[in-house]
Amino acid sequence: MRSENFRKGVKDGIPIGLGYFAVSFTFGMMAVADGLSIWQAVLISLTNVTSAGQFAGLEIMVMSGSYWEMALTQLIINLRYCLMSFSLAQKFRRDESLVHRYIAAFGVTEIFGISASQPGKVSAFYNYGAMCVAIPGWVLGTLAGAISGNLLPDFMMSALSVAIYGMFLAIIIPPAKQNKAVLAVVVAAMLISTLFKVIPFLSEVSSGFVIIITTLIVAGAAAYFCPIEDEKEEEGVHES
To answer: Which of 52, 158, 192, 236 is 20 to 30 A from 101 in CA distance terms?
Structure first.
């Protein structure tokens, strides 16, 4: 059963690994352009495996931000993984040991999506299989991007650096079209970030704290004014 679950995880993890390669390529390229060495960029990807966290962390390092900025930024940005872990802990088989759960927790990224969609309980070896494809895809993509950053001319580096903004647009546009609350969150985040750039005394706030403040304000307002209704409550309303 373990080998079967592992093989299925490898198969399901291939699309994630390919997607990771494309996104982490941009990270590796930007890391080298900002002054990091190739091995430093690869080490960051190997130990983090988080796109938004790494890009935000890179900016803080480049701007010589404090450890407090880095810690708070990563806590807020990656807090979603804590929620995913809570959900996945209920999805795992009851006989999975704590060691297997802890190891699988390292790969709670987009892998969570395919794990949560599996029928019935999930074995940690399914996650191991997906991790064996996804994590190398992320690290190798970073390596390829970092090497390319040392070889490609400046004009091509500038053109490819736009890829990260394309990735973010691809993430936010589809849900923003379907949900007005998501659209409001996106617009509000853009407006607040702009205020921190154009208002003199706000422009002195470091980029790390701008991310923290913007996230807390926008996410808090969205949770208060646009709460997600519980599924049971929605079913009761439809029945009545």
So the answer is: 52
